Description:
This protein has 12 helices and 12 strands.
Amino acid sequence: MNLQTFTYNGIFELESGNKLPGLQIGYTTYGTLNKDKDNVVWVCHALTANSDVFEWWKGLFGPEDHFNPDEYFIICANVLGSPYGTSNPLSVNPTTGQPYYLSFPEVTIRDIVKAHKLLADHLQIDDIEILLGGSLGGQQALEWSITEPDRIKNLILIATNAKHSPWGIAFNESQRLAIGADRTFYANFPDGGAKGLKAARSIALLSYRGYKTYAITQQEESDEVAKGFRAASYQNYQGQKLVNRFNAYSYWYLSKAMDSHNVGRGRHGVDKALSLIKARTLVIGIKSDVLFPVEEQQYLFRHIPKSAFAELDSFYGHDGFLIETEALTKVITSFFKTDVKGKIIELQKIA
């Protein structure tokens, strides 16, 4: 792992027209860029993840996994607004000398991609052999493949969509309502809104998993239990776990960034935008996903020119894209037919 920081000293103009006076991007790389620069695997991470993909996507990324540093130059950049090395609401505003907090400008998926394009230019990476991501990471990967169709050679989209749904936006707004109900959120302290963030995470978990997941993993072993339920304890534990490593301000802004996702904006509609993609594309859906239903991935498959579709049967719901790494490896392996050097030579259709 090689954690680095790229500093952009120019004015970074956002889609809204607002501007950031400079930008920092934290990113992690693994492996070595080969002479032909054709072994780049760029990972776009999800809502609360970080750039250390070996940490949160074990089983798919690692020394012994499909995407390993012996074969690939793997890079993952922390997204704009997230607190793991990239400019975010807790960063110092050079104009005031104080953290931005709620004066940080709202960002969109397109702004996040624009920042990553700056990093790719800085690293002199003209071609990305494989670009992939799940959930909000998939939204970024999709947007990037439309913005720069010639730069992206192969695209893997997992549990994501062409535009964020009213259902998904409603979940995010409910989480923001929980954060806003915590009055400390407006006090401008690094841990402001912590109780609200804990509640927001609890709400989010219901969309990440589902009825069957909780029925299997949180079921009581005795009919005599009348309080202290496993499911309640689980919600509290997971909520506090996020509070310990994240902050309410970044969560607030990144949920809004997710809501902004719509590849059809300013492009004569979603179908027209998807038709611009030149990359060979693998779209993967999860049968039990209630947040990004599999119909959304089927839509991508039908409208992206050179695409294949695969469906995973997992009881983990949306979180399956982080957990079902063995199944993902099999699907990805069957999608790419490779020669002895590991170079992709043919698109495989998957039933």
